[in-house]
Amino acid sequence: MHIGEIFAFLSAIFWAIGAGFYKKGLETTDVWSGNLMRTGFTSLGFIIFMVLNDSLIESINALTLELVFWLIFSAFFAFFLGDVLYLASIKECGVAKAVPISSTYPIFVSVWSFLLFGKLSLYVLFGAILIVMAIKLISKGEEKNSLKGIFLAISASISWSLSITVLELLTSYLPSEAVAGFRFIIAFMFLNLIVAKNGFNFSWNSLLWMGVGGMFVMVLGNYVFVEAIKLIGSAKVSPISAVYPILSAVFAGTVLREKITLRIIAGTLLSFAGVLLVLTG
């Protein structure tokens, strides 16, 4: 196995573990305070990474008003709105249901591409059908709280897809760690405004899982993902890293002791297949 393929699989493992970390942290805090701790520690992690990589000053000097605008746009929909919706969905319906549904964001990226450029392949169309079937399977017969969590997961997916539309532009001017780090810093600033008004719900448990744990999985997960793309290209990395919903379901069932039904298993596999088709298209 190529080292790039190993890195791609490691990124999926980190993201799968991260969902479990967030669920543990959210047991003792709210989503706003939890995401504040997560983005704060992750921002610090990326700053340290950029200092060690000698890219911090160079990245700051490369900033223009246009880049700052798109960084704010991407940060808002990725780590502020999108991640708050994602964390809320985990809190409402659990990791096993929230992750496979929120991971369907590639279909919405394809929708924006179709609306802007009029391009839609059969792969994307069939992938969309599988994803709709997956969501229906996972949500069928669920209680009100679970349905709310599923709606939040879909909303998170849409929000993330909006953020992704400008990543290619940003990474053409800034190194990957700067794009990630600056967006986390911006999201941290947004969250400070909300938490300052609503109050900061602190606990050592949430600090450990959301803050330290979040920094660990986000910095390392993003690093090995970017390195994998550099080594073997995004076409090979995307299908490998897309297995993280399946890993999350395994993690949720074995470690978090969530109830994994046949519908959740089938829905997760359908979601994975649908995302693969969309990525292929």
TrEMBL record:
**Primary localization class, coarse:** membrane
Checking Pfam families in the record gives:
EamA
Residue ranges occupied by any EamA domain in the UniProt entry: 3-139, 148-279
Q: How does it sit in the membrane?
A: Multi-pass membrane protein
Transmembrane stretches, start-end:
6-23, 35-52, 67-88, 120-138, 150-172, 178-195, 207-225, 237-255, 262-280
What keywords does the record list, in alphabetical order? Cell membrane, Membrane, Transmembrane, Transmembrane helix
Q: According to the lineage, what is the superkingdom?
A: Archaea
GO CC annotation terms, alphabetical: plasma membrane
Report the subcellular localization: Cell membrane
Q: Which InterPro entries match?
A: AA-Vitamin_Transporters, EamA_dom, EmrE-like
What this protein is called in its record is Putative membrane protein
Species source reads: Archaeoglobus sulfaticallidus PM70-1
Lineage of the organism: Archaea, Methanobacteriati, Methanobacteriota, Archaeoglobi, Archaeoglobales
